[in-house]
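Dear Dr. H.,

I hope your travels went smoothly. While you were away I took the liberty of generating a structure for the chain from your last submission, since the lab meeting agenda had it listed for discussion. I wanted you to have the full record in hand beforehand rather than looking at slides cold. The sequence, exactly as received, is reproduced here:
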Amino acid sequence: MGLDPKRGYAYYGRGLAWSNKGDDDRAIADYDQAVDLDPKLADAYYALGLAWAHKGDHDQAIVDYNQAIALNQKSADFYSARSASWKAKGNRERAEADRKTAVSLGGK
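The corresponding predicted structure, in token form, is as follows:
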């Protein structure tokens, strides 16, 4: 019997709870489990990116944002978050390109 992809949402939800409590390490562990169970869970990749960015690892955050965007190219939030990580890394051109995409999708 294979893994039930719906279980990924449970780990994603618990990861959000850990994130809200400020425990990035536990949140990351749960988000990782979520995407292992459901590799198409774009929101979990996005949440992973946010957690890594909060920890200051913008390289890893961008990797996760890239995966989220590959799964859902219509989310302004995904582009906006990646823009912030590009900006934190000093890459203004990529940050601005992602910001413009976010705005075109209805974001800020």
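Two observations you may find useful: Helices lie at 7-20, 24-37, 42-54, 58-71, 76-88, 92-104. The mean pLDDT is 94.

With kind regards,
E. W.
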